[in-house]
Amino acid sequence: MRIRLVIDFKRNYMIKKNTIIWVYILFVTQVLFSQQKDFTQQLSGTDLTIEMVTIPSGEFVMGSPNDEKGRGKDEGPKHDVKINAFMMSKYEITWDLYNLYLQRSIDSVKNEKAGQVTIEVDAVAGATIPYVDMSLGMGTSKGLPVVNITHYAASKFCEWLSAKTGRFYRLPTEAEWEYAARSGSETTFFFGNDASKLEDYAWYRNNSFDTYHKVGEKKPNPWGLYDIYGNVAEWTLDQYISDAYEGDNIFFHPIVSKGDSIVVRGGSFIDEDNELRSASRSASNPIWKRRDPQFPKSKWWNTDAQFVGFRIVSPNVVPNKEDLRKYWLSDM
Length: 332
Prior knowledge:
This protein is α+β, with helices and mostly antiparallel strands and about 325 residues long. The protein has five helices and ten strands.
């Protein structure tokens, strides 16, 4: 009996010891993750910064169930997607940030570089100065999201920022965007299925007064992203294909070609609640340039997409030099 008690004691001791070790490992992992979660991109020559949030690696179910209210046919079938860790801007890119690229006034100011990307900032194409008020009267003051920029222009901002900082930046893939928006949820919205709660998290048709608002005025999602729903819709990298979820050839790391319809996510201040769902997909449209008097029409500016902006990501895995230019549409 005494021998059995000693054996049981040793066994229980080892179980408790192993449990403590695993709890400690989990604790250390959480501490390390929390230390990495907030990263602020400094931009020398200005007081502006870009706050980045770490999005952990994981797997999620992309798309929506057949009975989800407002569901579109292009949101299925649901499928499992694995995502590598990346960083995403806490806020949508604002006019004051985009103007740094537009005006190129800080190009010559030396910036501490991360060493991921080694290209000269003066080698990046510059955007044309807009010929009308691209905000359409809604304002371009500090904190307001940039709009009416084309997918190409948003991609070139990412290239310029990468050259300036030495850190690889690009637009998010469609899968990355949905994964980050869901932040671990499988419901219609990251907060559940009750659309009435959108008031707390998003500017949309019910509360926006037909204008966009300064970023960060609503509550963030659980992973710390503000305005992931509403305010302005957001460009992704993906070419829009209505049946993209069919079969096994899902575009997890798409390369977009010139002239293709591009996926836009998140809904905007003019949209109904069903267009702000995590799984909702929209596509760019040539009508967004209908009042552009130029020929050919500007590759930098839209004239009728005052509801579309963007946010940026910085993946942990940097592509090879040949693929870098493709993500920035440098072959166009």
